[in-house]
Amino acid sequence: MPSPIFLPLLRELASAYQSFEIYSAAHIRSLGLTPPQFDIVATLGNTPGMSPKELGEKTLITKGTLTGVVDRLADKGLVRRIASPSDGRGQIVQLTRPGERLFARIFPAHLAYMERAFARLSPAELAGMTDSLRRLRAAFAAAHSDEREAT
To answer: Could you name the CATH architecture of 7-120?
Structure first.
């Protein structure tokens, strides 16, 4: 059976993601956070906070893992849980003042770190890759939607 035509793309996509994670995680750890902790702090930065469900969707961290990561950030005094004003049973996770200060320090630092890698590509290459990835994401979303409609 011949290999599917998309297999080289699948391998390259997985390899690119692994390389990105290795490069990014090394810097995040030097900032004193784990990658999931950074993801939560970066996602909550410049927001009034969000529900755990919304935070999980925006970070792609699973619910079980999210609870533990938020607990550890709360233990560090970087996030807090407050009652949701719109849902008496719900909670909002938000950065504390120290969490906001941390975000203001580490987010720009991490962007500058990541820029070192992206600077190796031209603006046209970056735009082309962004467009290609957007179309790839849309193809997966459409396939997922088709499957959900079929069931």
So the answer is: Orthogonal Bundle (1.10)
